TrEMBL record:
The lineage of its organism: Eukaryota, Metazoa, Chordata, Cephalochordata, Leptocardii. The gene is LOC109468731. GO terms for molecular function: DNA-binding transcription factor activity, RNA polymerase II-specific; RNA polymerase II cis-regulatory region sequence-specific DNA binding; zinc ion binding. It comes from the Eukaryota. Coiled coil: none annotated. It comes from Branchiostoma belcheri (Amphioxus). It holds the Pfam family zf-H2C2_2. This is Zinc finger protein 678-like.
Amino acid sequence: MATRALTSASSRTHTGEKPYRCEECGKQFSRPSHLKEHMRTHTGEKPYRCEECSKQFSLPSHLKEHMRTHTGEKPYRCEECGKQFSQLGNLKRHMGSHTGEKPYRCEECSKQFSELGNLTKHMRTHTGEKPYRCEECSKQFSELGSLKSHMRTHTCEKPYRCEECGKQFCTASNLKTHIRTHTGEKPYRCEECSRQFSQLSSLKAHIRTHTGEKPYRCEECGKQFSRLDDLKIHKRTHTGQKPYKCEECSRQFSMLATLKKHMRTHTGEKPYRCEECSKQFRDLGSLKTHMRSHTGEKPYRCEECGKQFSELGSLTKHMRTHTGEKPYRCEECSKQFRELGNLKRHMQTHTGEKPYRCEECSKQFSRLGILKKHMRTHSGENP
């Protein structure tokens, strides 16, 4: 009787007959044992339990595969490179790396994949589906791995540690990128100018300096940016947010880089040195501006009269000679000035302040130019 049942089930593999039907979803099977196993996907029953870690499974084959994570057994070996795997499915997927076979094709854009799972993930870029949701903040993700990485921002777990410096990271990719700060590796190269980068995202942002693309737009003022980080920083000009605070004087800044520059006013550090005259500067921008005093470069040109300047600030001041703009106003007498320095000097006529003192006779002056003229009375030099 058993032999007849076995023969009957075997024959169905040839005839395609599937007489056993699931009442829940209508799916059909050729054997009652297959229907029984399938029913567990509806009931959630997992009768097979791992003795090592108590994890439970719905099929004995799944338990068997799982046990290899404890034993380290990898019975499936690649004939090409000798690499071994704990599951047959993993070996089959790996074989695609040798054959180049990509049997799974996207109907939307024709891109091909070696694994069905990768095609499934890719399809979400077209559908916008994000089936994985964070229970903490409700943020949704298109991949389970992305959700797991995100969860570490809540748990603060950083399981990936750099062997060089001990710094820890929440994702393996972040550790991989960090390691390049030690090795100096820059695998991403710009085809336009050959500049190399340690991160793909940095290369993509750089490419926009060639294309002029600015995909990130401020909803407040419409200004556009080539990098998301630049947009985030810009938004603080609208919100007034200044998250970076100086521990010395409590002054706050909207950018970390600006705080770092400011800190040098306390430490006196001047890390940027001119190769021509050895003068040192607190920030790179000041050094670049100074270098123009050696090269004679004047990249900022007045559209009105053609006069050129080495600094943007100097051009801005000069433009006021054409526009007549005087943005600096004295609170005492309402007199207005084109430059802040002129306003400061004028204020001394109200305060009586004379900060410039003659070393010879101790006479004091409100302006440096007047002190210099006075010094000639001591030196005998003709004024």
